[in-house]
Design brief:
single chain; 13 helices; Rossmann fold; 43% helix
């Protein structure tokens, strides 16, 4: 069977989605030497992936995602490779693509949080963009042979929100990425003053970083400037807005960190905080656990399912609760000890190898129908 994978978002610079695609492809190379794989990449990540197995081939598909070019050009590029089964690791399946495919729906964020705050577009363009998103998403879900979801929460969300049949949705948990190289500071993390509380991720409104900054003000008023809050994510429009609103001198923005620097940042953190309002899986808290960092987290959506008893939870709408959770996570040694001990069992549930095996089984069973 010839299987195609839309890897135009391959690599850590595209956040959790890019990491998912990267780890899926890398681990498929290890476990499947029978089926043929076509990996579609853009110019900007072409050199980030070089096939390590003879049954893997990369093909240039330098088409931006979410635009009209994707709708028209991607089906033609895929058809040229005579794919038997296509895997779209994101909801952006072209409307004119009707060959057999599997789609991964990580979350329904834009249906639940269609806020103007999350866009730099004007009202009219934003309205058209949101309409197009709904059309593409509904097509992706309706025509897919199988939908992969990263959590039971997301599966239930798809069933209730999009009326998709439960038997069509398969849950494959993701896993934290662990840098296998020696994680030495290479510049980006070396200059962070300690001790610090760390957040890793984007700054979109649903990540709730504005309330985190409010909580940090409360925390600082009680504890002084003993600790720093470090926000690590690619500097963009939303991070710049946060920078302008940050009132404390002990808040640090790192911009995007390389894998080595990110590992170093985790290794030196005293606590990890995750205030998100909505997640389909929630990878950064698991990455923090894998680096031996206690976690305090929002109690919203899938997070209790994924993090289990290895996090101290708070109501993400209450800055005072966030501040109190950070206080306990930093200063209550018994809580810190229990969180780290519980994290071992939680982390044992997740591995990219198992995620990939389950995904391969979905390919094989779908291709035989």
């Amino acid at each position: 069977m010839k299987i195609g994978i839309d890897a135009r978002m391959f690599g850590p610079k595209q956040g959790g989605l890019g990491r998912y695609i990267e780890q899926l492809v890398i681990n498929l190379e290890k476990i499947d030497r029978t089926n043929e794989y076509i990996v579609f990449l853009r110019k900007n990540n072409w050199n980030d992936y070089n096939p390590a197995a003879p049954n893997f081939k990369k093909v240039l598909a330098d088409v931006p995602w979410y635009g009209w070019a994707e709708q028209i050009k991607m089906p033609k590029i895929i058809r040229c490779e005579k794919i038997d089964l296509m895997h779209f690791p994101h909801w952006n399946v072209p409307l004119f693509f009707n060959s057999p495919y599997i789609v991964t729906i990580h979350d329904l964020l834009l249906l639940h949080y269609p806020t103007r705050k999350a866009s730099t577009l004007g009202p009219l363009l934003y309205w058209f963009k949101n309409l197009a998103y709904k059309l593409v998403l509904e097509h992706a879900v309706k025509r897919a042979k199988i939908i992969i979801a990263p959590s039971e929460f997301t599966k239930k969300d798809i069933i209730s929100t999009l009326c998709s049949p439960a038997e069509k949705i398969k849950v494959t948990y993701l896993a934290p990425y662990q840098n296998k190289t020696d994680a030495k500071d290479t510049g980006g993390a070396a200059s962070i003053p300690e001790p610090y509380v760390l957040y890793v991720g984007v700054a979109y409104p649903h990540k709730n970083l504005d309330r985190l900054l409010q909580a940090w003000q409360i925390f600082t008023e009680k504890n002084g400037n003993k600790y720093y809050l470090v926000l690590s994510g690619k500097n963009n429009y939303f991070y710049k807005k946060l920078m302008a609103s940050a009132k404390s001198d002990n808040v640090i923005f790192t911009d995007f960190l390389s894998d080595a620097d990110l590992s170093a940042a985790y290794n030196h953190a005293s606590l990890f905080v995750f205030p998100s309002l909505y997640e389909g899986f929630g990878m950064p808290p698991l990455e923090a656990m894998a680096h031996g960092v206690p976690v305090v987290s929002s109690n919203s959506t899938c997070l209790k399912e994924i993090l289990g008893d290895a996090a101290c939870y708070f109501d993400p709408l209450q800055p005072l609760q966030i501040a109190e959770a950070m206080q306990r996570g930093l200063q209550d040694q018994e809580i810190r000890k229990n969180l780290l001990e519980n994290a071992k069992n939680v982390l044992a549930k997740y591995s990219w190898e198992e995620t990939t095996r389950q995904t391969l089984n979905i390919y094989l069973s779908t291709g035989q129908k």
